[in-house]
User: Which sequence fits this backbone?
């Protein structure tokens, strides 16, 4: 479980580093998640991202990928093979190229949200 602790910690730190202007919805040993202040027609805030511990590893959910699937175009193979569904990536370990790819992907997602006025 120590490796998943490291992966969770790394991904949590990455999300914390981009959290300015976002709202921390949950921050505990199992999940760290961020919403925007933008309200949907339902009155709920628009979700941005979350990192969650799972039995099979650690999941990173990035809602901008759901809104704009083209963000996945040209991502490195180290990330492509970790994509699960439309907006989730799953990890058991992280190497530096994967970390860099995640940073760029999260940054692109945040830029998308800013361009649409969500952040």
Assistant:
């Amino acid at each position: 479980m120590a490796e998943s602790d490291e992966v969770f910690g790394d991904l949590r730190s990455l999300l914390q580093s981009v959290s300015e202007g976002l709202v921390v919805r949950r921050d505990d040993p199992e999940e760290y998640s961020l919403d925007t202040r933008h309200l949907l027609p339902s009155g709920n805030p628009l979700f941005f991202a979350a990192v969650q511990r799972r039995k099979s590893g650690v999941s990173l959910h990035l809602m901008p990928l759901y809104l704009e699937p083209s963000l996945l175009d040209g991502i490195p193979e180290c990330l492509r093979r970790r994509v699960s569904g439309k907006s989730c990536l799953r990890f058991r370990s992280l190497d530096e190229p994967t970390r860099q790819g995640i940073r760029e992907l999260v940054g692109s997602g945040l830029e998308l949200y800013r361009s649409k006025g969500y952040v």
About this structure: The chain has one domain: 2-115. The first strand starts at residue 23 and ends at 28.
